[in-house]
Write a structure and sequence with these properties.
With about 450 residues, the protein is α/β, with parallel strands linked by helices. The chain has 2 domains: about 180 residues, Rossmann fold (3-Layer(aba) Sandwich); about 180 residues, 2-Layer Sandwich (Dihydrodipicolinate Reductase, domain 2). Helix content is about 30%, strand content about 20%. The two termini are about 25 Å apart.
């Protein structure tokens, strides 16, 4: 868990301003009324609201309805009405009786999250990654249980905001469950537990890979503003997604952090750039990253991600120890003790929702805060060192006030922080020249 996290202000406050608040305010959390939970355990109907109606949000809503027979989808929000309509149709086709989103509960706009939170007992957050900490905090402030997709911040400011929101949720008796779904994969759970029990000896190195084609792109249409174009392609703009170390590789880094008992690395260095994915819709993202993390006892983590077409691909996590090795997603250990997971574990996306709703029903709220902010910060550290080309220590990174611009509230009247040049291409970070944290 991250430590010494300052409290976060209401969601309408500047992302930077919360750094100025007194840490002493945290003590006031102990006086909150814990009886204001969003759902009384044992009652039948749980109102579910969805913020972010893309593929991941739609899938999370379907899994939530499958997880609990009393769950009803009652509200949806997205910045685009057409995305709400498409998502609603998919969810309705899967679960017609419990998809009861009235037309006046399909909220459109950057601030539509507020109406969904007000209408729901459980909030599913699966929108552009930039907004995850803000919407998480708003839901916790309102006394709602929250499932929130990864990453849990795209910069140090956002990560600290997530940690503070998780701490507050724990004090209020609310569930916060992370979309880092590998924590709910029973095969990975047992493999990691066996590593912790000494099956491969001391961990000396790890190699993780998240190699995939690019996220889908949406070509610019007549009449679109620059902001709409960027929101339509938010995966490809760093101020909305954080780029691919935080967006994709975070899953692999989370598993590595789990193996390391949540110990953060001491420092990291990395390299990255763009060599294959060109065109305006690809925004300002790198299409390949490599990061080396160094831990206090000498363990090294070698982490790679790529979003390029027609290349070798795959997701893998290999752990090397003094007595053997483990492959996390293959559920196997080889060495002095050979072991393979028996059977086929349940779908982790569905299991995370089952455990989430079971905790609410039983009055035993789950809180992923012990790892979700930490794992995200490992990813943020990696993204920063790839952009800057510099080595950076953990302590300096987590304390930094770096936040992707712009500051404050965001609307469709925004002058976006990144704009295309005369050739339609967007400027990229330049390792060795780009500076994100003062003094590095």
């Amino acid at each position: 868990m991250l430590t010494s996290t300052p409290p976060v202000p209401p969601s309408s406050t500047s992302r930077r301003d919360f750094l100025k608040l007194s840490a002493g305010l945290t003590a006031g959390l102990a006086t909150l009324d814990l009886s204001r939970g969003a759902h009384a355990g044992g009652t039948d109907r749980i109102r579910v609201g969805l913020i972010g109606c893309g593929n991941r949000g739609t899938g999370a809503a379907i899994d939530a309805l499958d997880a609990d027979p009393g769950a009803h989808l009652v509200a949806m929000a997205d910045v685009f009405a057409d995305r709400i309509a498409a998502s609603h149709d998919r969810i309705k086709a899967h679960c017609p009786d419990r998809t009861t989103v009235a037309p006046d509960h399909r909220f459109v706009g950057v601030d539509a999250y507020r109406q969904v939170i007000a209408a729901s007992d459980v909030v599913l957050v699966a929108c552009a990654s930039r907004f995850h900490p803000q919407y998480l905090r708003a839901a916790v402030d309102a006394g709602k249980h929250v499932f929130v997709e990864k990453p849990h911040g795209i910069d140090p400011v956002g990560v600290r905001a997530t940690q503070a929101a998780c701490d507050l949720a724990r004090t209020k008796g609310l569930s916060v469950v992370s979309g880092l779904h590998n924590r709910f994969d029973l095969g990975v759970r047992e493999t990691v537990q066996r590593i912790h029990d000494g099956a491969i000896g001391d961990v000396v190195a790890m190699e993780v890979n998240f190699l995939r084609p690019p996220y889908g792109v949406v070509e610019r249409q007549p009449g679109w503003s620059e902001v709409e174009f960027q929101f339509r392609n938010w995966y490809h703009f760093s101020w909305l997604s954080g780029d691919d170390v935080t967006q994709s590789l975070v899953h692999s880094l989370d598993k590595a952090s789990w193996v390391m008992h949540e110990e953060p690395p001491m420092k990291a260095h990395g390299l990255g750039g763009r060599s294959a994915s060109f065109g305006p819709a690809y925004g300002d993202m790198f299409d390949h990253h490599s990061v080396v993390y160094e831990y206090a006892q000498g363990t090294r983590l070698y982490a790679f991600c790529r979003t390029q077409k027609a290349c070798f691909g795959g997701i893998s996590d290999h752990v090397f120890g003094t007595k053997g090795r483990a492959s996390l997603l293959n559920y196997l250990i080889r060495g002095e003790q050979n072991w393979d997971f028996s059977g086929k574990p349940p779908n982790p996306y569905k299991r995370e929702q089952r455990e989430f709703f079971a905790g609410i029903r039983e009055g035993k709220p789950l809180n992923s805060g012990d790892y979700m902010a930490n794992s995200t910060m490992v990813a943020v550290l990696g993204q920063i060192v790839c952009y800057t080309g510099k080595q950076l220590g953990w302590k300096k990174a987590i304390a930094a006030d770096f936040a992707f611009p712009p500051d404050g509230e965001i609307g469709f009247d925004l002058d976006p922080p990144v704009k295309p040049g005369g050739d339609g291409q967007y400027p990229l970070a330049v390792p060795g020249k780009t500076t994100l944290i003062a003094g590095t």
